[in-house]
Write a structure and sequence with these properties.
homodimer; 407 residues; alpha/beta; Rossmann fold; Dihydrodipicolinate Reductase, domain 2; Alpha-Beta Plaits; 5-stranded parallel β-sheet; 14 helices; 15 strands; 37% helix; 23% strand; binds NADP nicotinamide-adenine-dinucleotide phosphate; threonine biosynthesis (chains A, B); oxidoreductase (chains A, B); HDH_cat (chains A, B)
């Protein structure tokens, strides 16, 4: 039986979906495609509409929401769910902001919402959390969740490019937007981690609560330090749960060769799940791009057709969905221009040292401070693995300074 | 609604399942547990039976088949499927031998059969092939699928143990059976690859057809060679499909650091899938052990309860399920005591060289020859990556001989 499909958005993801759907036995070609910009040149053999209502007028079985805007996506998706229509979305910003409401709408009106492409694109992490881990207790979930940032870090560590050169290259390759701030500030990752936390721990924490620091201020000094220690820096997102509650943070992190994330390069994403029974699992796949994301959307459609939906099995619907995150300190190396910033934000400080006009310190930072520091220019933080002592870091910084590599 | 569960087998996997089921909200404690050996000491607080009929007499909703024997498993599983009962099995030997019939029985009588634990234990590879890749075209599937062999190789490469010491250690740790031949000869892997081929390519090839060579004859010389080249040896299973058909082989393989399998150590398993749309995916997880396998069985039960079953979506049921594999040559380094073996089995030979009583050669081997050679003592083969030339290998062998490391 042919299904009627309405599609919103015909950009990177929408075109990827379209290209894939055309080749299948079950073509699932949308009967309506709504886009926004009336002046844009489009393929002449496809009919486009500029009115959302055109999608709803056709009484579609499925709606694909693949647009770049969040507010309008919210309107389309809630409207569809209120009509009991099943929706596939790739929109992490929308989902991260409105999941609790979107879950209720599914319950009340019976339409389903699937969104595998929204987190780690091609990696089936949400489906796997919902099925394979349904009755297992998750201890932690950790990931490299932004392809652009990871691509930039790969160019810096493997090709010796500067941050700015690497960013330009990511933009040329189409991995980073012309305004890349969502990608490199960690904001995109915070949306994704927020969604994963709901599926892993059954709680909605909201991305504003997640301690987030991006790679935007990463300087030559931290890069030289990592290299001289034989380590790499990766933008790691991590959420864990223990008897006290959930903690979650996103921060550039020093990783050693034995860490599975060490080998995750370029536009790849990866997810590590630690659970009580299945213990360690690691998944790696393409984190962005037209075909992998389009395939994830098509895959959701196939799953929905087969009757699959998210159970939100970790959620206890008799209790509030919202949860306050733990306020635990994270051990970091901080670099900035002012000693005050360190004094006001870093505690358990192990050293403060002035090197070439910068202050360097090792100490701990609380989630709230991290979010504030992420807004400042010229402040750089990286998380340190436990085995690295402050003395090791200080020693290495001085060595780098001596050898003149530090700017 | 409580479901009635019948359990066959209370060994490593059965006990893992039981331990997990006891802790859940939905306990799913089997009402009948059938085991075999009447003399074995058992926990006194659990009731056991020694008669398969006891399971069927209770009219169970689900049967878990977790026994070590294949013939009796065949009887229980076919009996259950004929009664339309849903079965969870971890028995790769059974499945690999009888999948076509077991698929028909599901179709005819409506009972379902799930078996995630049978391949790569905790990694949800079959479910992922059936859902996420349902409408994607798979190009190749590759894996480290035997925890014991991989554990042995890790001890050899990371701790400098000899093969025999490493095997003893694997047995002490419970990763290898007291008769480890299934594990180290590649036979266990062949069953698993045979099952994966059905889910990835929709064809049943039969494990006898799969070119298989184990690690049982791996000698100091090949190990020294790999080490001096900065490589590791991993027992890699690979199946790929192109316009000509499917090829499949299992063989110890030289892998370089940039290969994701390089970092898969100890009892871990890993699977790499390359597909047209999702491109590269890589999954790693525990490949053996009581909790990971028990959790995979429990997970299957949850999936079955949720209405999930394998679609065998790659299978074209209008065509024969059986398929002949391609007979392509594989580039190998062979070591043996007789020049005749090389002449009779290796073609496109690039060199034959006598070193310390052994003949070494680089050339190609056909699947049928590989299977014959796997039966012989003192014949060792490793697959070579394309970039390594015969000259490089020969040069390195001579260097090793000079430095006296070669026995
Ligand atoms: N790109 C990736 O690799 C990737 C990966 C995972 C998730 N995502 C998510 O997928 C979604 C789409 O991303 P994208 O990369 O495909 O974006 P994109 O290339 O910028 O394309 C966005 C599309 O949405 C359309 N659009 C914007 N506002 C609209 C509205 N109000 N009504 C109808 N159409 C509207 C645009 O129309 P015009 O054609 O008229 O401009 C365009 O076709 C986003 O939520 C993004 O976060 C993207
Ligand atoms: N171990 C792993 O990590 C692993 C991983 C994946 C898949 N598997 C598969 O899972 C299955 C079970 O493996 P295992 O490691 O749990 O084996 P195991 O530890 O040797 O236990 C086998 C169990 O099967 C019982 N049994 C044997 N024949 C029986 C029969 N005819 N009727 C009833 N019970 C019978 C045995 O009974 P007694 O107690 O009376 O001896 C024992 O309880 C095998 O197919 C294996 O290939 C194992």
């Amino acid at each position: 039986m042919t299904k009627r499909i309405g599609l919103f958005g015909f950009g990177v993801v929408g075109q990827g979906y379209f290209q894939i759907a055309k080749k299948q036995k079950e073509k699932w070609i949308p009967d309506t495609i709504v886009v926004k910009d009336q002046k844009k040149r489009r393929p002449s053999d496809i009919k486009f509409s500029y009115h959302a209502q055109d999608v709803f007028d056709k009484n579609p079985d499925y709606i694909l929401e693949l647009i770049s805007n969040t507010e309008e996506a919210y309107e389309y998706v809630t409207e569809a769910l209120k009509r009991g229509i099943t929706v596939i979305s790739a929109n992490k910003k929308l989902l991260s902001a409105h999941l609790p409401e979107l879950i209720s709408l599914q319950k009340v009106f019976g339409g389903k919402l699937l969104y595998e492409a929204a987190v780690a694109a091609g990696i089936p992490v949400i489906t796997t959390l919902e099925t394979h881990f349904e009755e297992d207790t998750i201890v932690s979930i950790e990931g490299i969740l932004n392809g652009s940032s990871n691509y930039i870090l790969s160019r810096i560590f493997n090709n010796g490019l500067s941050f700015d050169e690497a960013l330009r290259m990511a933009q040329q390759k189409g991995f980073a937007e012309s305004d890349p701030s969502f990608d490199i500030s960690g904001s995109d990752v915070a949306s994704k981690l927020n969604i994963l936390i709901l599926h892993a721990f059954g709680k909605f924490v909201g991305e504003e609560q997640i301690a987030t620091f991006g790679i935007q201020n990463l300087g030559e000094d931290e890069i030289a330090l990592a290299k001289s220690l034989g380590l790499k820096i990766k933008l790691i997102a991590k959420a864990e749960k223990d008897y006290r509650g959930i903690s979650a943070y996103i921060i550039p992190t020093l990783v050693e060769e034995s860490n599975l994330f060490y080998g995750v390069e370029n536009e790849y994403n990866a997810v590590k799940i630690n659970s009580e029974h299945l213990q360690d699992q690691f998944y790696q796949g393409k984190g962005a791009g037209s075909l992998p994301t389009g395939a994830a959307v098509y895959g959701d459609l196939v799953k929905a057709r087969n009757g699959f939906s998210y159970n939100y099995s970790k959620v206890n619907f008799d209790k509030p969905l919202d949860e306050k995150l733990l306020n635990l300190g994270i051990k970091v190396l901080v670099k900035c221009r002012s000693e005050e910033i360190i004094e006001n934000n870093i505690f358990s400080t192990e050293f403060i040292e002035r090197v070439d006009g910068f202050y360097f310190a090792v100490g701990k930072v609380k989630p709230k401070s991290l979010n504030k520091l992420n807004e400042l220019k010229e402040v750089s933080l990286i998380a340190l693995p436990d085995y690295l002592s402050a003395e090791d870091i200080l020693h290495e910084l001085k060595e780098i300074q001596k050898s003149g590599e530090l700017i």
